[in-house]
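Ticket #4471: complex job returned nothing on first submit. Input attached below:
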Amino acid sequence: MDIVKIPENDFYKFVDKKIAEKSSRIISVVRKGTKFVFDELDSASRMCLDYDVTILPPKKYFQPQKETLLRFVPKQADSYEAVNEFEPITLIGVHYYDLAAIYLMDRAFSEGKKDENYLKKRNNALLIGLYPTHFFKYRFSSSVIKGEQPYKVADLMLIHMDDGHFALEIVTEKGRAYIEGAGCKKSDYTLKEIEDAKNRIKDDQRLPIPVELTPDYLMKNHDHPVWEVFGEKCYSCGSCVFVCPTCYCFDMKDEIDLTLKSGERTRNWDGCMLENFAVCAGGHNFRGKRAARFRHRIFRKGVNLPLKYHYWGCVGCGRCADACTSSIAGPVKVFKYIEENK
Amino acid sequence: MIQTANSTKHDNESIYLPEVATLIRKEPMTDLDMYFEFEMKNKPLGHLYGQFVELSIPGIGEVAISISSPPGKGKSFEMVIRKVGQVTSVIHQLNPGDSVGIRGPFGTHFPMEDLKGKSLLFVTGGQGLVPARSAILHALKNRGDYKDITILFGCRDPGQRLFTSELKEWKSRDDIVFLETVDKCEPGEWDGHVGVITTLFPQLKDIDPLETHAIVVGPPVMYKFVIMSLYDMEFSDKHIIVSLERHMKCGVGKCGHCQINNLYVCQDGPVFVYDTIKHLKEAI
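Support reply: We reran it on our side without changes. The output follows.
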């Protein structure tokens, strides 16, 4: 993989140039109060690449909170029209764990029946990754992500160096073409300097057991008291799943406009932690208990997705732990409780 | 805003775009259940036994419904739809000639080809008869392909019986065994067996568990008790085929509603050999 370098100021100027070109929407991290969010840039000066974590992961650009799947005339089935809205976007400064999550999302939406509403958005995106420069107290990504995982989706990777430069790893040809004209120079950093810069921020937390052992470990602890103990404190608010970069469950709803002449079928974020998620026609709730829902979420990350994709289903971003009102959602805490109460 | 947005209409790549079907006839079956026959506008549905579709009315919504007829009726297919919510209430109000959206068929099916030469034991409860009927009608039509056929049907009360003329015909046939029960009834309302479906099992004679495959479809509460009774008869897990009910919202293995552990019931099921799911604690 080629590595180049660019002074930070020049990179910001390059981003301004890309904004002016208007060939794609430029999305990056900006401040929102004391926190950070992904948002569209009108100027590179708003861009903040020195952040701890964003409130929502970048999945909102590929699976929006709400998107239109179909348009129709109410009650006329021959009027259904598929809708697929997408446009070229460039995401700048996506932390490596969020890239790992996008890889899992890509698998979910492309394997089996292909979901073009997701894939068209995804295939029209250029991803510029970033290694974190800021500590986040709930993050434990380094104990759950395999090194190659972010590189399966990134086009370029930014690494903050100590000398006012970014080192830029060129991952794809699409990425190489994108930075042509940015004024990058050949990198003269040693591999050790690059690795040290990538690993500058150490996670405070880590999963207490090796990640590859979790499927068996959780299966053996299917009936452990942890699910009841933690479930009892759960408000079923769904915050943990809505901020999760690897949760993609959704609901579909029909909406009719005020004229009653047209309507849309929309896809909306939904979550397995919400009380009525598994209710069937007739009212039977297959996961009516909070403990069962809590277990399902952790099993999805630690058993189901790993068995299917051979990568852990959680990327250790720590957003769920941060968002949870009851301080129960973080996987590390769950595993620690099981370890301490064998 | 950058003006580069693309919007593709008539995007046939969409897995959410329904085909069109027209209602041909409907008949009430119980106070809540209505029989429907639909005809696909373009090509036959191409379904197999026990599969389901996502049926929709634009502006009202989409619901997963089992197909009740076996393949082979050209573009037409049958369903029995229970009025339980907003979408099914509107479906009940449809008139012949009205159109609906259909996505699918989805899911796994009863392996009627693989079961040729075997004996069949259908254990159906309530609406479970609806998907099972596609397999039952196939087996009865091709009676010579199967050895002994036994059908059990149970429902809450006599008013909940489905396909009553077919039940009558099955009862009169001497080449199959058909046993029926109701959970409860008013005095004088019913002269048949009363009790939950497992109370029919003592009447089953000469069922060879090595030669017979049980097809079990019913309400969630039924499975454990029926499977225990089948174990008493020395059925192996590989000879028990179940069809599981879940909230199948998208039908394409994405939305997560129907998930049991690593399985999406809409894609990996709804028909499972019990052997493959018995380790999943939330399955039944």
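Chain B touches chain A through 54 residues (CB under 8 Å). Closing as resolved unless it happens again.
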